[in-house]
Amino acid sequence: MGKKFRETHTIPFYECDAKRRLTIPTLIKLAVSCSTVQSEQLGVSEEDVEKLGLGWIITHYEITISRLPEQGETVTVQTEAESYNKFFCYRNFWIFDESGAECVFIESVFALMDFETRKIASVRDEVLAPFESEKIKKIKRPTPLLPFEKATESKDYRVRFYDLDANQHVNNAVYFSWLFDVLDRSFLEEHVPEKIVLNFNKEVRYGEMVVSEYELVEEVEFLATKHQVNSQDQLSCEATIYWQK
Amino acid sequence: MGKKFRETHTIPFYECDAKRRLTIPTLIKLAVSCSTVQSEQLGVSEEDVEKLGLGWIITHYEITISRLPEQGETVTVQTEAESYNKFFCYRNFWIFDESGAECVFIESVFALMDFETRKIASVRDEVLAPFESEKIKKIKRPTPLLPFEKATESKDYRVRFYDLDANQHVNNAVYFSWLFDVLDRSFLEEHVPEKIVLNFNKEVRYGEMVVSEYELVEEVEFLATKHQVNSQDQLSCEATIYWQK
């Protein structure tokens, strides 16, 4: 069990979609922003980690949505760096509404990248110590994705200047806008995601073109979309989104 | 003199660019959000105006930037619906930093659109009364734009689902991302705008492709970029941005 940290946030209209529901990219931004503030308060800010020649990257998300908060609601965002092994850190996020009900639960996997080699570095105990995360031996197996077969539709996106954050690469929330935007407007207006499983495979850089593809799967038991984002013919990110039926 | 309204806001990392400065689209979102909250508190929310078959549109911005606020700063956003005539409402916005210094001053022109005819409707006194705006005869002449001659560069953008807001059209802040993104990354990293003059000419709808073009003007006295955004071969928005030298 790591130290828990929480912040409150009132959702302005500009963080919402055309249906006044919190957008998924903003949901991710709120979560990661909360962990950034916790890290600063514990004296292991991004700048502190940079001084070691390292930077945080996110490799996996598993997002369970009970209800998307709406414009004007004041939510509590909570995070906890739960545990870590030699290479991966397991961090959880929660979004609660004013009644204390859980709207969103996010499990994520973070790793440290060595800026020089651009490869994953082993986790340093001193970076993790302030979070009081449990050190474990096990490497957790993420929930598998549904296999991608044949694209129902695809759209191209050019990386924009405002997609970059202070790490000089595409902010991880932007991938969610590529994943969702490729879907039809009417589908997005009529459906709410209930579970998103996502793997990041490769960084995308400024000016690159990405291709976002999806495949619709409609079964008796579930409605899902399977996603791939490719850049320069290399898989950058893949995901499965399960939708409320 | 209208009623003034102010809110404070702490700038999270995700509202900033790669240089940790507040992005221009977020600057606009913060301003308009502040006027939305004031309108709600005065009992003339967007929903109330909608019931009259009307909706607010913005036709002109003139933005003077002394300093762009940075990540982590707590700013005060202030607005005042200063005056109005038969067709136009003149609303000002300010962003102050913690020391009370003015970072940004925005003059804007709002109008009411009739949803049925899609044309500008005359301003209703009952909609404006709660703001205590001064009724004037004069139609103010906006600062002229530098004439656009020949594009230095152009980029295409497809309207995305998350570009739409609850009014079901492209949020006005999105135009600023098209205006800025067409510029070179190195130019954007090295320069800060000091004045932006912008006219909106025509709505852009979901799924349309827009072409954002700019022309660089380097004079002894000033450095400026002139901008046009076209959609379906019609001028949607034009602007002049003056940059700190």
Q: What does this protein structure show overall?
A:
Chains A, B: It comes from Vagococcus silagei. Chains A, B: This is Acyl-[acyl-carrier-protein] thioesterase. Chains A, B: One of its GO terms (molecular function) is fatty acyl-[ACP] hydrolase activity. Chains A, B: Keywords: Fatty acid biosynthesis, Fatty acid metabolism, Hydrolase, Lipid biosynthesis, Lipid metabolism, Transit peptide. Chains A, B: Residues 150-245 form the Acyl-ACP thioesterase-like C-terminal domain. The structure is a homodimer of 245-residue chains. Chain A has 245 residues and is α+β, with helices and mostly antiparallel strands. Chain A folds into two domains: 4-135, Hotdog Thioesterase (Thiol Ester Dehydrase, Chain A, Roll); 153-243, Hotdog Thioesterase (Thiol Ester Dehydrase, Chain A). Chain A is 18% helix and 40% strand. Chain A has five helices and twelve strands. Chain A has helices spanning 24-41, 46-50, 125-128, 172-181, 185-190, and strands at 4-10, 54-65, 74-84, 89-96, 102-114, 119-121, 134-135, 153-158, 193-200, 209-218, 223-231, 234-243. In chain A, strands 1, 2, 3, 4, 5, 6, 7, 8, 9, 10, 11 and 12 form a twelve-stranded mixed beta sheet that branches. In chain A, β11 (223-231) and β12 form a beta hairpin. In chain A, α1 (24-41) packs antiparallel against α4. The longest helix of chain A is centred in the first third of the chain and has 18 residues, at 24-41. Chain A is globular and about 50 Å long. Chain A starts with a strand and ends with a strand. The mean pLDDT of chain A is 95. Chains A and B meet through α1 and α4 of A and α1 and α4 of B.
